[in-house]
Amino acid sequence: MDLSRCYDGARGRPARPATSDRPGSEPVVSGDVLATPAPVMRTDRVASLVENIWGLRVDTVRQLSSERDANVLLDGRYVLKVSNPAEDPSVIDMENAAMSHAARVAADLPLPSVVPATSGASVVSVIDDAGAACLARLITVVPGSPAEGRPVTTELARQVGALAARTSLALQGLFHRAGGRVLDWDVRRTHHLLGEPDVLDRLGALGPRVARVLPRLAAAADATAALPAGLNHADVTLSNILTRTTPGPPTITGLIDFGDMHHTAHVCDLAVTLTSVVRNTARQQPAGTWDLAGAVLTGYQRHRPLTPQEADVLGDLIIGRLALTLVISQRRSAAHEDNQAYICQYDTSTSRILGELLDLGPDQVTRRLHTLTGTSRVILPGTRRPAADNRAGGADSASCADGAEPGDLLRRRRRVTGGALSPLFYSRPLHIVRGEGPWLFAADGTRYLDAYNNVAVVGHAHPTVTQAVSRQLRILNTHSRYLHHGIVELAERLLATMLEPLDTCLFTTSGTEANELAWRMATACTGGNAAIIAEHAYHGSTKWMADLSSNEWPAGYHPDHVATFAAPRRSTGGVDRQTAAERVTAAVARLADHGDKAALVLADLGFTSEGILDAPADFIAGLVDSAHSAGALFLADEVQVGFGRVGPAFWRFAAAGVTPDFVTLGKPMGAGYPIGALITRREIAESLARDYEYFSTFAGTPAAAAASLAVLDVLENERIPERTATVGTHLRDKLRDLARRDARLGDVRGTGLIAGVEISGQPHTQDHAGRRALARALLDALRDHHVLAGLTGPDGTVLKVRPPLIWHTDQADLFAAAVAESLATIGWEQMPQKT
Ligand SMILES: Cc1ncc(COP(=O)(O)O)c(C=O)c1O
Fold it and tell me: Do β-strands 262-265 and 504-508 pair in parallel, antiparallel, or remain unpaired?
């Protein structure tokens, strides 16, 4: 064997000779590495070669087995890899580039590295004992021994999944033109190979069964063209994964052999790994197929979550890979009869697992993989995926509700949920499956303009929010009794939006819980036992808060410890400071008549459940003054109107220029991720702390904080509060225009991006039933015009327009146009007659 030329892999072209000036052989030409004999390297010449080229003295030299290359172990520390003469030099360059790229971007991945020659070259050309010119490299040895053939526990499977994902991610930024090579092992080509004449006949009884699913395998391979792809190791299998040999739980120590690297979909790379683990050749099997698959996927998804589309094809790719393994092994054993035992050593295990998956059927395999990956819970409108298992291996369940028929879903809902206690909107309930910005999409694909949902304050599924929450969920989500920067930052940012004495923030899971906590503090702080609320107030759903929600009281119900004041309606008297103060003072007196003492005055300053009223700042100031004069505290419930809805102010109380003792937050705060807050002064919070601690498990979790911080970011970055006033005014102007032309619309009210439109009924009837019927007819007609709104007010006769705050004037125009068209379709004559 002679050293001839040095190949500079870094530059991808032959370079100057390294340590010899002997004339070189012909340049290496790539060909079929499996058809060309492996290089022959005499052991006694290896040491001097290595010393000449790499400048390393080695004592022990041991030949390693390889079908197509010559690999020699040196001192147990290095492997001299002499590649098959037919090997494409650019492929070797790609392997080297992959190892050094991965070392740079993910230094802790246990991969071998290339030892440069003294010339600096990473690859050199040598002549083997048979006179063939071959490329040679020296790479470091990673410790451990191959995992193939040894028992695979679920813990090891999890590590294997993680390794596959991390390797895939480490290579994602690498480009190499050799990645486009065509390999039989490429899972995307499975169906080509399996579809060749007579190929499947050689698989015995499995052949016709694979033939039946071949079109499906081809469709899955086709579908990978639209999936995330890149250069992949493509052979992260138990044969190439090294594990610790010392006793103790199995631990991966290395990943070797970049010889099958190519550009492919990442899910194909995963399919290879998953196949290898479930097909493992150990005689002792400590875990079942689906436990192993689940563990690989858990490990993988910790680093690289799969998309539903990737999970859709994974099962077919695995089936294809198993069949491909058998076919390639049959073909090679026919060509190399002398080496049959070695080539076919895994056929029994491969056939066993292929048979198992075919028995189950590709549909069921796919369902199980969806369940294991969690992608069965993510159903895109317009796709109908088969129902997933409740658990892998379990019976089918109808957990894919979004694929169900609406009628069926409604029946199932009625059977299992609260019935009359939890009614749905609309007489024909809507089945909404997706949201995007100001739009909601129904299962039948209809797009609706959302004029109702203030929870989606920054629009549905805002990527900033979904990204923040999902990233946090992947890292940590626990209760708030540990230090966590998210919740501290959130409290700081919220307090920065408040007025001076408000210095304490306590997190809750809902608006109800925030109001309830305030109620407890108010009673502890003032010694009072009673509350004052508006006549048609809503403050929450617990027993205490239901008592403080006059709008919800059944006929004849009025808890003793609660008194009400009339909301600021011009129709019911003044809306000035004096009037407000008198109303609260009168309520205080009524409580005193029963021996009760007012502790708290609560008001939603948008008076949403009252029918969306425009309370003048004076009226609000009157409420605060009189609460304080009575020794009670004042709570501004910002659950409806907070977070910039009354922009440019962030809070309704701030727009009114008052300073409450409590501010409660909810709904929009986490854009749908449950979180609420109570803001108060420290001395008030401490009055409760004298006797109690406050803790609510899900309040202020890291994910909730991430959601809320993202909401604040979006509101700030997109300057939303600055816009809401303009868009809200535009909306009301449009609606007032309509009201001027159509007597069925009355007063149009609201501050910021919220509007209430009084539904007046027919000119000749002002009865409540008629107005209610008209309001409902209008709401239904709006739905038919693909607009979703709501009703509010004491009689449910006020059209409630409370959209995500990302509305621009376009959406306001669309809404007003839909109201006009809806009114036209209702027609006066269709109105219920006066009863
Ligand atoms: C003004 C007001 N306060 C409190 C609540 C209760 O909030 P949650 O449903 O988050 O408990 C609501 C809910 O609609 C509300 O409108």
Answer: unpaired
